[in-house]
Amino acid sequence: MTDAETPVFETNFHIHMVSDSTGETLMEVMRASVAQFEGANPLEHLYALVRSTRQLNHVLDEIAAYPGIVMYTIVNPDLRRQLETRCMELGTPAIAVLDPMLATLSAYLGRPVASRAGAQRSLDAEYFRRIEALNYTMAHDDGQGEDFESADILLLGVSRTSKTPTSIYLAHRGYRAANIPLVQSVPLPEQVYSLKNPLVVGLTASPERIVQIRRNRLLSLNEERDTDYVDDYSVREEVLHAKRLFAKHGWSSIDVTRRSVEETAAKIINLFNDKRSKGA
After folding, report:
1. Are residues 82 and 184 in the same domain?
2. How many domains does the chain have?
C-alpha cells in the first residue's frame, strides 16, 4: 500500500492546558499545532488563572485521571516545579510553550524575564481591544453605521468577495474593520472619498469565481431563477466597475480568487502597517 493509499485513523487524545492567565495563548498554539495532524481529535481541558498550590493540585488530579499531553504557561517557579515533577511521575509529556520564545528574547535583549503571572494588565488591555474592535466591526458590516472615519480598515467589494468574514477575522486580531458592498446603481457614501484615518482596500475576484459562489448561495436558498446577480456579463461589468473605482481613487486592491480569508487578512495587515509606518 502506497503512502497515498494509507488510511487515516481518527485519534482521540486528552490535552491539558494549564495557564496562570486566561489560557488564550495556549488554546491558539494547541489548535494551530493539532491542525497539522490529520485525524487528530484533542479532548481539551483548559485550566485558567492557576496561581495557587490548591488550584494546581486540582489540575494534577485531572491530569492523573485523564492522561494525555500537558501544555503550560506558568511563571511561578514553585508551581512549575510541582507541575513538572508530577508529570514526570505520571509519564506525561509536559511542554512549556513560551520557554523557547522567552529564552531567545532574553538573550537578544540582554535582560531577564520578568516573572509576572500572565502579564495580566497588558493581556486584559489586548482582550478588551479585540472585543471593542469586534463590536465596531459588527455594527459596520455590509454598509451599516456611519462613523467610517474611526475605522482602522475599510473594505470595499462586490457581493461575494469575502468582505464580512475578512472583516470579522481582522476584528479578532484587534482591528476596527468596516465593509461596504459595491453596487453599480448605488453610490458610495460621500464620506468614503475623504476618509483620512482608515486604510481603504478593495477586494476583487474573478467573475467566474463570483458567479460560482453566487449560484451556490442561491441554491442554498432554494432560488433557481437566473438573474443579473449570476449573469456572466453583468458580473464582469460589476468587477470591472469596482477595479476602475479602486484605481481612480488610488485604493489598494487584493484579488481574493485563490486566497483564504487568513491570507487576505495577512495582506491587509501588511498594507495597514506600511501605511502607519509612512505616517499616511
Report:
1. no
2. 2
Sheet with 68-73, side-by-side order of all strands: 40-47, 11-19, 68-73, 94-96
Cβ–Cβ under 8 Å, residues 158 and 238: yes
Cβ atoms of residues 70 and 87 within 8 Å: yes
Q: Which residues have C-beta within 8 Å of that of residue 211, sequence separation ≥ 6? A: 230, 232, 235
pLDDT in tens, 145-158: 989 999 999 999 99
Structural domain harbouring 71 = 3-115
Q: How confident is the model at residue 55 (pLDDT cuts 50, 70, 90)?
A: very high
Q: What's the CATH code of the domain at 86?
A: 3.40.50.2300
Asked whether residue 94 falls in the same domain as residue 225, the answer is: no
